[in-house]
Amino acid sequence: MVYAIVRAGGRQEKVEVGSVLVVDRIAGDDNGNVELAPVLLVDGDKVTSDADALAKVKVTAEVVTDLRGPKIRIQHYRNKTGYKRRMGHRSELTRLKVTEIK
């Protein structure tokens, strides 16, 4: 069983070949591929965490779709002053499918 821990969108995600993950918006290359930076690689009983060895490892994913997260509503209120403020936010996200770990 081969899997890797990759750095994607400010977080670390555990990925295998064929797994689908949602990260912050990433632009792919012309073919729609993205290369993710590995932090750890597990290949059976062998665990690789050395930076020099990980420089040779490539984790490739393809962009499935771009999407937006759920709307988050933010409200500010100050008592006895009449101050009310309402804002909203939706995160820009990308769904990736891991195609290769080598």
UniProtKB/TrEMBL annotation:
Keyword Transport in annotation: no
GO molecular function terms noted in the UniProt entry: rRNA binding; structural constituent of ribosome
GO biological process: translation
Gene Ontology cellular-component annotations: cytoplasm; ribonucleoprotein complex; ribosome
Domain of life: Bacteria
Statement: the UniProt record of this protein carries the keyword RNA-binding: yes
Keyword terms: Ribonucleoprotein, Ribosomal protein, RNA-binding, rRNA-binding
Task performed by this protein: This protein binds to 23S rRNA in the presence of protein L20.
Quaternary structure (record): Part of the 50S ribosomal subunit. Contacts protein L20.
Family membership noted in the UniProt record: Belongs to the bacterial ribosomal protein bL21 family.
Name recorded for this polypeptide: Large ribosomal subunit protein bL21
Species assigned in the record: Agrococcus carbonis
